[in-house]
Description:
The structure holds two protein chains of two kinds. By secondary structure, chain A is of the alpha/beta class.
Amino acid sequence: MLADIRAKVEAGKRLERADGRWLLTEAPLVDLGSLAQEVRFRLHPPRQVSFVIDSNPNYTNVCITDCQFCAFYRKPGHPEAWTLTVEQVLEKIESAARGGATTVLLQGGHNPALPLDYYLSIVRETRRRFPQVTPHFFTASEIMTMADVSGLSMPEVLAQLKAAGQSTLPGGGAEVLSERVRKRIEPKKGGPRAWLDVHREAHRQGFRSTATMMYGHVETPEDIVDHWEAIRELQDEHGGFTAFVPWSFKPGNTLLEKWIKTYQGPNAYLRMLAASRLYLDNFAHVQASWFSEGKRAGQIALHWGADDFGGTLFEENVHAAADFVNKTTVEEIVTLIREAGFTPVQRTTEYEVLQVY
Amino acid sequence: MPAVDTAPLTFRDSRLHPLWDKVRAGERLSREDGQLLFETEDLHGLGRLANFAKSRLHGDQVFFVLNRYVNPTNLCVLSCAFCDFARKKGEAGAFENSIEDVLEMIKPGTREAHIVGGHHPDWPFEYFERMIAAIHAARPETQIKAFTAAEIDYFWRRWKIEPREALTRLKQAGLHSMPGGGAEIFSKRLQKELRFTGKANADRWLEIHGIAHSLGIKTNATMLYGHIETMAERVEHLVRLREQQDRSGGFLTFIPLAYQIGNTKLVPRQTPPTDDLRTIAASRLLLDNFPHIEAYWVMIGEETASVALHFGASDVNGTLEDEKIAHAAKAASPAGLAQEQILRIIRDAGKIAVERDALYNVVKVWS
């Protein structure tokens, strides 16, 4: 089977569902890594690994969507609920900018009390005050929330964000793009189309975005293949995805915690990265993270098909709410990449090289 | 998951092809081969070779033991440059446990007690002999794995008790097996540079293990790596262990110990996980006469230990309740894992967890 897959990959032929299932369940881990690494080097010959200096603040934890996997949100009116003013958000962006960030990934809960103008003001003021920072704001479901509160269509909301100065979207909120999984863990967020339609429209309007996956909860290998198929198909349409970014579910403090029997550790992560590198043949980049699986697992992951090490994440609150905390500095990221055997490269949100270390 | 990788073996580093032929034919690798294992950039190629060798011996099985770590004392007459554990008398944090204290640490039902300590300035040999006898009497179900070759050598240096006599008496008292510590790295240069000249040197360390083997005492072996040693010194260390195993045959497991920088800071950072995987794989391939290579999660972390099960490791040690030496040097891992976590490390790698005793008798095969 591996020989068949190798032949397909070398001939530039697309992998099929059965291939994907086998990669996820049976492929020997080291051989899989080896093949993924060949593909990675064919796409990106230099022995370089990129990273971005960024921060992940949040503007509100108020949310009406009650996702089973989320430890971050609070219902409206909850004593621990909070929402920042536009100025408070801009202070966070200023602090990220002072730390050298070129990207701010801003996201929040689905708070029906916030008008569209709130979001547009944040984008506009970020562009005006911090032109060096790319506003990488608002996941697909937040865009849908903006459409709901404003009465505008989703494409119109995206057009207004674009006019305000935004040109990329983060890929969060995909979880696993399978009807069954999304119904089980996030019934109020809609099926895969809810996420896919926003990204399709965004790409049509010239936005770039990332595709993510949060695995390691109730999904089966079949669901993962559904996810790959969906984003690979969409990428064929407009080529708007910059990268694929998977991470494992962190069960701490979530409603889903007691249902999760299987632990998805470093081997599962390496397998996911390498198999994704092989399946997603129209994605330029696959991101491994020092953050989501730990620094040392992240270093190993750079040998399983990933060519990017994510961001510095000066601020992060969502994983932290699940008691998963991990911090770094630019110096440490550079060292981690070097130790793993690669030359560190600082990049922009859209994967343009800024600096070779 | 298949026990042995069946993929066509082509290597990114073509220099690995002759090694693959040797490994498949069961031929011994040379020093030069060993050097290549530590030099190649083809980490996956190395992993595939080692995984082949491991799978041929043990299939998909990975072993662990429910054990307890016991340190009678951290008082030590030595001042090894890499050690954060040792204390001088009166120094803050120094401890001396009575036999009663030690007995209390070993709960009834403990499968293996791993007992090592400092070179105490004045506890007589008889104290240790009594300690082993007392543990054996109180906990007959517990296998006692105690005293590194360095400690056995110290009984000679301090009390003029020959290793053969010391080991014979300790065995009589209830000693089961010996841990592999105190080997550090077999290099005259580093013995001087890292200030462990007062400790059993390579010849003595190997001699004592040979004596233990001749008395029917099984032992382990270690290597402290990731500090200022060269790759050639690592290869030399492994080759010397292999030669000793040819002579005496009593080694069970080789445990590469990643140096923890702690407060001794011989190097600025701990060696990266890719080096751990490389070292484990190279050890599996060079030490063709050792039954097991261990991924010691205390030193390398649970994640790397789990991945190492694809790089030739067939053992993850154990639960190691109350480990102190690596943690004195600020090892990032928890000081003891629940059995459930040990099973996770093994299962995440898709391997079969086999609970063992100190001598690798199978206690239970976990699904």
